[in-house]
Amino acid sequence: MQIFEDNIGTYITRSKNKIRIAFSNNRWIHAPTAPGFPQQLNYYKGEKASVIAYCNEGYTVTFAINHEKSLTMNLLDHFDPIDDGLLYDMTRIHSTGKSIFSINKITLIKTDSVKSIYFPAKKPGALKYYHELFDSAPLYFPDSNRILVSPDNYVSEMRYSQFPYDMHLMQQGSLDSCGHTCAAMVAKDLLRATGTGQRTVNFFVMKSKQKTGGIFLHKLSEEMRLRGIKNKFFHIIDPVTYVQDKMSQDYWSGIVSVGGHACVISKAGSNEFYIRDPYQGILYVDKLSNLKNYHLNEQFIEIY
């Protein structure tokens, strides 16, 4: 392994990509990305980069990154936090600036890479923490080559065909509707395969577009069961081993919680799994051995 240095730090190259590394505890590890930037953008403090912010209304704003600021604070040099759809800042009533709450995608461009991250289109209630809104995301997808579908590929939803039934992908309509969006995706999966009713699909799709205050998985399991989606709620100490064992034997699909954020995971052939993230609206495929890296919470829903 050949190690290089530049004014930012130490790195290696792999498949023409520059990978930042740091020496810690007598071994080389991936260097931490810049604080205040989502890991998925792969940005390191001091690097020259520009950002394109995509907005719901169809326009874009492009600017150079100030590496002394977080991503959100960079954005606030070009956008205003006025009206999030629920709360309104009366002190900015005369502002003519663009709304920061309309941003749904951010692309960061460096000389050696272009990375994107996606956000729900509506953000009711986000005015309370607007100063850090874009600094992170619930999930980090490190390998862009493993992103099978993103919102760039669809408008409101996407069907990805795989055995034994199609997988549907949706992006949650508000910042706290991940659980109901997962249920909506599962309901759509089962619509043709098991005869789940259209009214069930419509109910969860409606919920996925609303600010709901979030929902605990055991309550979501009950809602799904009452509307005809067969499932079982689990609370076990080692969910990763349970899911890996199930997937190694047969097809398996369920709704899991990663740090309080609900996602749908399903078996994806030999030694791989699909994960559907409603926050970004991404379908990602990963090695089954990497499931431990997602730090699943002890509660999850198994779909039958």
How would you sum up this structure, described in words?
The chain is of the alpha+beta class and 304 residues long. The chain is built from five helices and 19 strands. The strands form five sheets. It has a seven-stranded antiparallel sheet with strand order 11-18-17-16-15-19-14, sandwiched between helices. The chain has a four-stranded antiparallel sheet with strand order 1-2-3-4, with no helix packed on it. Helix 2 (178-193) packs antiparallel against helix 3.
Descriptive keywords:
304 residues; alpha+beta; 7-stranded antiparallel sheet; 4-stranded antiparallel sheet; 5 helices; 19 strands
Describe, in short, the structure shown.
With 304 residues, the chain is of the alpha+beta class. The chain has five helices and 19 strands. A hairpin with a 2-residue loop joins strand 2 and strand 3.
